[in-house]
Amino acid sequence: MGMKYEPIKDFLNRVFRTPWMRKIFYRLIDILLLRTWHIHREIKRWIRRAPENPKVLDAGSGLGQHSFFIARKCPTCKITGVDVNQAQVENNNKFFGRIGLGERVQFQTGRLEEYFCQQCYDLVLNIEVIEHIEDDRRVLENFSKSLRSGGTLILSTPSLFGEHDHDHEHEHSQDENSSFVDEHVRDGYDPDDLRRMLLDVGFSDVNVKFMYGRYGGLAWKLSMKYPIIMLNKSFLFFIVLPFYYLFTMPVALVLNYLDTVVDNPKGGSLLVIAKK
What pTM does this model have? Predict the structure, then answer.
């Protein structure tokens, strides 16, 4: 039986309720999650060449941390977040309204297989979402329709190579092919297959690279995988998390940095930059 993210998200929403606590939580995510290091770098690159008053779609917005980052770094951006979880959408709208960003950042409930806004956006962000959706091609088609000419898609998703979210060799129990994450409908993507699908649905320039290689994969286990396993067993582990991270975080941060500066031949996740 694999790990479930949704109970963890619900728990974190209850713990980090006030605006200042939620900002601290976002900062912790930025530090802990290696993919955020990669994604933030690409978002900053996009902002430097973004058109005037750009519009952004945070597709599968989750806890809202990426919308928060873009809103802070790009004061002229208008951001729409779409997520299937209505309670999370309401929670996000409440938070962004309380911190004075409600006019620029708004969330709505929707399914990505159905949602598109014809040529509305300059950037579509889709982070660790598409592996949860059966009709992934339809979702990518909707992203292509929603982007204006010259627009950019930044997407991350598990790879078929590596040990990020699908460590069969070490994490299997009764089912040899079970994924570490229960909510995934597929273990991951072959980069060539994903590139071809993006070209087929209307993207003209697709760059795919690996994240969570040798160094990043170990950092992920130390900073995320093992703590999440323990939290799924008992939320009492939340009490000892600060002491755990006191010893493991320095090592994980060095490993994260190494992952961002080396060219990973393979890895547990893919980072995709696709141009319309």
Answer: 0.85
Indicate the domain borders of the chain.
Answer: 5-275
61-78 confidence digits (pLDDT tens): 999 999 999 999 999 999
Phi, psi of 167, deg, nearest 5: -85, 80
Instruction: Give CA–CA dist 243/146, Å, rounded.
Output: 45
Do 137 and 198 touch, CB atoms closer than 8 A?
Answer: no
Select from 36, 61, 3, 45 the least CA-distant residue to 211: 36
Task: State the Cα–Cα distance between residues 241 and 260, nearest whole angstrom.
Answer: 25
What proportions of the chain, in percent to the nearest 5, are helix, strand and coil? 50, 20, 30
- What's the Cα-to-Cα distance from 68 to each of 55, 136, 150, 162, rounded to whole Å? 14, 26, 24, 30
Question: Under CATH, to which class is 5-275 assigned?
Answer: alpha beta
Assign 3-class secondary structure to 1-12. CCECHHHHHHHH
The pLDDT tens digits of the residues spanning 181-224 come to 456 788 899 999 999 999 999 999 999 999 999 999 999 999 88
Which of left, alpha, beta for 55 (phi over 0: left; psi -120 to 50: alpha)? beta
The one-character DSSP state at 132 is G
